[in-house]
Amino acid sequence: MRALETCLYADDLSAAEAFYSGVLGLTLHSKVAGRHLFYRLDGSMLLIFNPEASAKPGDVPSHQGKPGGHACLAIPREQTAEWETRLRGHGLDVTRYAWGERGESLYFDDPAGNVLELAPASIWGL
Q: Name one GO molecular function term (predicted).
């Protein structure tokens, strides 16, 4: 089994789209204005819902959450420094945490206050 979807919440989907598409460079798969953004990742999906709009029935089952979640996206180990430079270049406060020989994680917040992490799969021995 593997995670197929990761879901985060953002009150301002325009800011979320600018961040996830622009800063992180993710490709938008689909969206419903004011309700949700769907990004295709490598083998899974990242879903970002507006909490108020997504609580109402629609084409997608209702979701009831709030900003303040966490997601970790996998990056190649050798790109950690490059990503740290990129994130800091966008004015983000980045915390770099070492997991011993397993690699390092980069922690930062998205505009909605969700905590994001970029890390190699090796932090979990994968």
A: lyase activity
